[in-house]
Amino acid sequence: MAMHVTPYFLPLMALLVTPLCEAATKGAQAPFHALCLAWDVTQNMKLPARSPTPAPSSYDRLLKLNMSAALANWRQMFENSEAKQGWPKYKKANSDSTKGLDWSKHWSSWLTAADAVNKPKSNWNAKDKPKHNNSLKDYQISTINMSAQEVQNLLEQLNTESQDSSGKSLANAVNDELGNAFCSGTLTGTAQAPVCSDISNGQSKVAQCTKANAGKSIALDMFCLCAVTNDQDSCAGGTNIAGTVLFARNPHASALATLISKCPKKTLDKQLDEGITLALAAFLGQLGQLADNQNNIGLGRTVNGKVYTGTSSACVEYTDKIKHSTTGLKQIAWIGHLLTAKKLFSEYKQQVAQKQLLIKDIDNLSKQAEHEYGRNHAVEATAGSPRAGTPGEGKQLSTKQECGKHHASPDNCNKAGCDYDAKNKNTNPKQDHHQQLQEQEQIHLDVQGTKINLILKMNKQAISKI
What is the rounded CA–CA span in Å between residue 299 and residue 27? Predict the structure, then answer.
């Protein structure tokens, strides 16, 4: 059977077949550029801040279809001056009848749709010549209304920020891991002139660049690898940087800024997960046994026979991090952070893919409503759902019968919640406008639900295959 080797193991195989002392004879410049790739990932591949996802253009039309199919009193509600000032104003002006309702999320879009439907000369009325509630079949209105409600729910999901298991935003969690990989302490300054508290100019290099601190952060490893008195062995490529990286025995205040100025800028035109893989491959390719001691594993070389001591050591030793470790290279802290970021980014990508399918759901539901709205020979559905926009019809009939028991006169208007009809000289039930609206909002319409649920089910199955 042929053996298949994944790309992730190629750097490890190259390391095994290359003389292990070779990396130690090349000085600090090559391993420094491997650290530069890791720095590039942490600084230039952070995820952008979340911004609201706009609804597909089909949603705007769906809102107008639904508004056209709604009861006349629902459309007219948006003509009210308080309504035009926004939900808070309308709710305050109608506090008794709107008690317990919260339409703040949708009010603005409803108002826009109502404005288009209510204006006789609007583009909507001029071009589309829309039908209204009294010219549509029950199941058509139900399907349009149910589609609009479901799309509103999907839009809320679409604009809900993806979170990790702890409840933190996935994008923020990824960026935090990248930040901790570069600097485990406090990072201040600017992107081009950062100051990391991992590097203290109040301590000598010897005190900070210990075996225990190796791998603490990319910033510290850069400093420990590059801060040497012999400029030919530094990361500067033959340029003396002793005056800006190492001041006597202590780090210079601008050490980190000087070092990253030597790094290539934005060399990885990849997605984050690919960038991390390439950076770690470059790092693994530079790991080797330090020249003077075949039992020590690290980056770079030694100067004047010294291993990790004094100011002239151009190496970072990871021996204790790698040997006898059950977690492998994760024991090197900044690598652990990058691998965690990569895992979180995989979840983030899946969430992005799910949101794209939500957009398809919204578009498909809008098309379903458009189809029902445009039928010329609609057949009445056999399901016994109430006509959309007339919830509680049985209750109204009962109240009407109660009103009929009273003598038809203005004096009896307050009895049984009745209104006096002067023209026809009879009594009718009072119209509780907002109660009707609340019932209309809460009612669950099942007509044509199978079609809509099938659309959602198909996309959920597609998500599971990602």
Answer: 9
Rounded Cα gap, residues 326 and 246, in angstroms: 36
Domain residue spans of the chain: 21-46+169-336
CA–CA gap between residue 85 and residue 170 (Å, rounded):
36
3-state secondary structure of 201: coil
Whole-prediction pTM value? 0.68
Question: Regarding predicted confidence, which is higher, 237 or 77?
Answer: 77
Helices 333-373/272-286 angle, 10° precision: 160
In this structure, the strands spanning 246-247 and 250-251 are antiparallel
pLDDT digits (tens, 9 = 90+) for 273-294: 999 999 999 999 988 877 655 6
Q: What is the largest CA-CA distance in the chain?
A: 115
Map residue 463 onto helix, strand or coil.
helix
What is the Cα–Cα distance from 24 to 237, expressed in whole angstroms? Answer: 16
Q: Residue 286 CB: number of other CB atoms within 10 A?
A: 20
Q: Token pair of 226, please? A: 């590059």
Residue 418, φ and ψ in degrees, nearest 5 = -105, 155
Q: Is 261 helix (H, G, I), strand (E, B) or coil?
A: coil
Cα(402)–Cα(429) distance, integer angstroms: 9
Calpha distance 269→257 (Å, rounded)? 23
Question: From residue 138, how far is each of 134, 170, 229, 389 by CA, in Å?
Answer: 9, 44, 86, 10
Cβ partners under 8 Å of residue 111, min gap 6: 78, 83, 84
Residue 140 near residue 382, CB atoms below 8 Å: no
Angstrom distance (rounded) from CA 271 to CA 248 = 41
Q: For 103-161, what is each residue's pLDDT tens digit?
A: 998 899 999 999 999 988 888 888 766 667 667 888 888 889 999 999 989 988 888 88
